[in-house]
Amino acid sequence: MADNLPHVSPVSAFRINTDHIQRKQFDIPYAALSPAQQLDIYWPDAGVGPFPVILAVHGGAYLGGDKADTQVVPMLAGLKRGYAVVSINYRLSGEALFPAPIQDVKAAIRWIRANAAQYQLNPAKIGAWGDSAGGHFVALAGTSAGVPELTDLTLGNAGLSDQIQAVVDWFGPTNFLTMDEQLAASGAPPEFLSHNNPDAPEALLLGAQITRIPDRVQASNPGTYITPAAPPFLIQHGTHDWIVPAGQSITLAAKLEAVVGRERVILELLDGAGHGGPEFETPENLNRVLDFFRPTLEIIFRVPSKLVANRFICSFHRPGFSVQTRSIVSVHTLGE
């Protein structure tokens, strides 16, 4: 397979050291409107595709971060499980207002499908994993497949779906208007209650102070678009997160459960963890995330469609994976 892969591109200024990964390609354009619309692909060191895909979406308060910075390191653990990792950049708030970044995420998903054969990717098996702002965008991509208001088909591959098959949301915001209230309730120091400010990252993303534009806030909320077609979600959040309160994830998970059922939503609160940190990146937790992807990206498409739901439910409760039997964190299990 290695002889069939495209050549490796030069290293960028932001790039972490990935010399240990043999097969990779950097800075591939997935659209032509902005230089930000590029992605990196990492393939497992062995094996023949098509490989299931982990789409990595970085955070950075909507105004920073990069597809090749340290945020991609946890996602690269998927290479040893046989996943290809596609890490994307998107237009930041200094360049374009919402919905531009989610339009870019959706364009990247369509690009993966359009170019799957060339890059030995499986177009039917795409799971998205993001942290912070990236968690927000993967959650939004998961709930809003095909929503015209969040889609720009002029970015390319208009005839293809932007549906993803699984979502891992690490401490992403959902409803900007409730963040300060939830932070105050969690005991966060007053200096962290700043999301309603006119210069807050959320205001810079949406174009105005959020208290003045509730309709735009609602349009950016993944909970606005939930339908029974939403994919399975694994949501992890630190209980001591004073940047994005855990209440954001609790609320989203409850809304998802009400529509898609408790079997397709897992919410885990990591006791004592903040906004990211080592608790999320332990080998055990990374295995937990990859175990979540496994039934969706490796099994669900191999059974008849009428059996998909039953197979998925059973796989979530198999020995060694159920949150009731192998908890490594403080877990909020919905529906109990």
Terminal Cα span: 48 Å
What is the total tally of β strands?
A: 9
Describe the largest sheet. Answer: 9 strands, mixed
Poorly predicted regions are 1-12, 299-336
**H/E element sequence:** EEEHEHHEHEHHHEHEHHE
Spatial order of strands in the largest sheet: 1-2-4-3-5-6-7-8-9
**Fraction of residues in H or I helices:** 25-40%
> What average pLDDT do the residues reach?
87
Helical stretch tally: 10
Structural class by SSE content: alpha/beta
Computed Rg: 19 Å
User: How would you sum up the global shape?
Assistant: globular
Percentage of β-strand residues: 15-25%
Q: Secondary-structure map with pairings?
A:
Blueprint lengths: L22 E7 L8 E6 L7 E7 L15 H4 L7 E5 L11 H15 L1 H4 L1 E11 L1 H11 L22 E5 L8 H7 L15 H6 L7 H6 L13 E6 L7 H15 L4 E6 L12 H17 L8 H9 L13 E2 L5
Parallel strand pairs: 3-4, 3-5, 5-6, 6-7, 7-8
Antiparallel strand pairs: 1-2, 2-4, 8-9
Helix pairs in contact: 2-4, 9-10
Could you please describe the fold and organization of this structure?
- This protein has 336 residues and is of the alpha/beta class.
- Helix content is 28%, strand content 16%.
- It has 10 helices and 9 strands.
- The protein has helices spanning 73-76, 100-114, 116-119, 133-143, 179-185, 201-206, 214-219, 246-260, 283-299, 308-316; strands at residues 23-29, 38-43, 51-57, 84-88, 121-131, 166-170, 233-238, 265-270, 330-331.
- It has a 9-stranded mixed sheet with strand order 1-2-4-3-5-6-7-8-9, sandwiched between helices.
- Helix 2 packs across helix 4 and helix 9 packs antiparallel against helix 10.
- The radius of gyration is 19 Å and the shape is globular.
